[in-house]
Structures are given as C-alpha cells and as structure tokens.
Design goal:
The protein is α+β, with helices and mostly antiparallel strands. It folds into two domains: 135 residues, Roll (Pnp Oxidase, Chain A), CATH 2.30.110.10; 143 residues, Four Helix Bundle (Hemerythrin (Met), subunit A) (Up-down Bundle). It has eight helices and seven strands, in the order αββββαββααβαααα. A hairpin with a 6-residue loop joins β1 and β2.
Length: 308
C-alpha cells in the first residue's frame, strides 16, 4: 500500500505509545509493557487519510505443514465498547493496511474471519490474552477478529524488472483468492441446507477483491506516472507498445469497476453471471500482465538501481 504525504494521523492519546514503539524497536512501557504490540496503519473510510493505532495482537496457530510463526490476529474490541473502532471500519473499506511489529514493517491484507473460523480464532486469542473475554462480555456485538495476511516477504531489491514480477505475482495471488473463495461460497449456497453459506456472505471474497482492485489501480497509476514515461525517454521505439498498455489499462480499469459493483450484491447475484464476469476479467488481466512483462521487463532490467 503506497503511503502519501501528509504523514499518517496519530491521536494525541496514542502518540506517546507510537513514538516509544518506533524509538525502541517495538518495546514500550506502561500499560503495554510485556505485551505483544503492533502498529496498524489504515486508510480512513471517509477521509482517505492514513491513521496509525497501536494494537495488541496474537499469533495464529500455523497451519499443518507450515513451518512459519503463524499470521497475526487483532481484535476490534475497543475495550468492549458498543461500536466497532474506527480502524476496523477503515479496513472494511480499504483492506490494504500497513503493519509494524518490532523492527519489521510490511503491507498486509486485513481479512475479518467469519463463522466457525472466527469462533476458533477468538478462542485462541482468549487463551493467549484472557482480557478479550472481558471485553466480549461487556458488549452485545460479536468482537471482530481480523487476520493480517502478509502477501509476500519483501525480497532484497535486485532490479526494476524483478520488482514488476513481484507485483504481478501479488496481483495474480489476490485474483486467485477471489476465484477460490467465490467458488467455495457459491458451492455452499447451491448445496443449501446441508452446508449453508455464511450469514454475512463473502467477507473474505470482498476483502481480497478490494485488495486486488486497489493494488491494481495503484500499480497502473504508478506505471502511468513513472515507469512508462521513463521507458519512453530511454526507448522511444517502444511508443506503440506503451500506447497499447495504456489502452489496456483503461479496459482493465473498467472491468475492475464492474467486478466491485458485482461483488456488492454477491449474496443475491446469479452464480453463472458472477463466474462469467470473473473468468472474463481473469483472462483479460492475465493477457495484460503477460504482455506488460514481455514489453517492460527487458528495458526495466537495464535501468540503474535507485540511489541508496
């Protein structure tokens, strides 16, 4: 998720904690001393302004066969308040978030868990941090449990061409998530009573789709403003190819907008229409990414690395 100026907003209450966290590689004193703390930066649902908050977190149990430490879980408890905290409403609108843990700083997709997955995760959280049980007892709302899914581990910079491949891998992964989760949702809906779909359909579909769409839009914007003009200056003979890419950007952007509109009514949408639209977008996007790699990677590989 690109971060623009002005810097992320931090409330007066949270500012000392955030400053201490960043000055001491994630270690803080006071009420947070000894606890697992992260900084979460979201984009405001109404303001569009980035906002940073300190949150406690619990590591999710690694899946079978996964040697890693598990993904991070945060709970939108607000201390048991009757309303969801602002940061939770923000990530529903903009799933791409920024996470700081210790000295680590990375982008993630924020996915609220549903149904049995939420119940298992909340039980795991309460086992590790019992105070959340008190927060749940204080409010009638079910406290959302949010998984922060790290899309990939940032690799050392080896060239602009490799960075483009990394972005494309991320985009393809998010689109695959949307396809897989859409199929799982519609399959449950079609089975009916034997395996009913979730009461709030498609939160995972929605979050991954929005993450994909936001990332795609940002990727194209950065190309239009930076990569494509730089390549034209260095390789003017590529002007026809660059013009084709710009035309494809407009086509893919229109498909992206239609997919978001379709997703808003996923609970009532016709499965075949949804699948057909998704298949069409997938084909056009894959063809666009393939062509982009064919045209852009060779000249990008020749560009010198950025200073520093």
């Amino acid at each position: 998720m690109p971060f623009s100026h002005p810097p992320a907003r931090v409330s007066d209450v949270n500012r000392p904690v955030v400053e201490e966290f960043r000055a001491n590689a994630g270690r803080v004193g006071g009420m947070f001393e000894g606890g697992d703390l992260l900084l979460l930066t979201t984009v405001g649902a109404r303001t569009g302004r980035e906002q940073t908050v300190p949150l406690g977190f619990v590591r999710e149990e690694p899946e079978s066969g996964d040697p890693g430490p598990g993904r991070l879980l945060v709970v939108a408890s607000a201390g048991g308040a009757p309303r969801h905290p602002d940061w939770y409403r923000n990530l529903l609108a903009h799933p791409m978030v920024r996470v700081e843990v210790g000295e680590d700083d990375f982008g993630a997709v924020a996915v609220p868990l549903e149904g049995a997955a939420r119940e298992r995760a909340f039980a795991h959280v309460v086992e590790r941090a019992p105070g959340y049980a008190d927060h749940q007892a204080a409010t009638a709302r079910a406290l959302p449990v949010v998984r922060l899914e790290r899309p990939y581990v940032d690799a050392p910079f080896t060239g602009f061409g490799d960075k483009l491949r990394e972005v494309h891998t991320w985009l393809r992964t998010q689109l695959r998530h949307v396809r897989d989760e859409t199929e799982a949702y519609f399959a449950a809906r079609e089975r009916g009573g034997t395996a009913a779909p979730p009461a709030v359909p498609g939160l995972r579909i929605r979050q991954h789709c929005l993450a994909f769409c936001e990332s795609l839009h940002t990727h194209h914007t950065l190309e239009e403003q930076g990569a494509l003009p730089a390549i034209l200056r260095a390789h003017p003979h590529l002007a026809p190819a660059v013009e084709r890419l710009r035309a494809e950007h407009r086509v893919v952007d229109a498909l992206r907008a239609r997919l978001v509109a379709l997703l808003d009514g996923v609970a009532e949408s016709d499965p075949e229409r949804f699948r057909a639209e998704l298949v069409r977008m997938t084909r056009e996007l894959e063809a666009h990414l393939d062509y982009e790699e064919e045209v852009l990677i060779p000249p990008l590989d020749l560009l010198p690395p950025p200073p520093g």
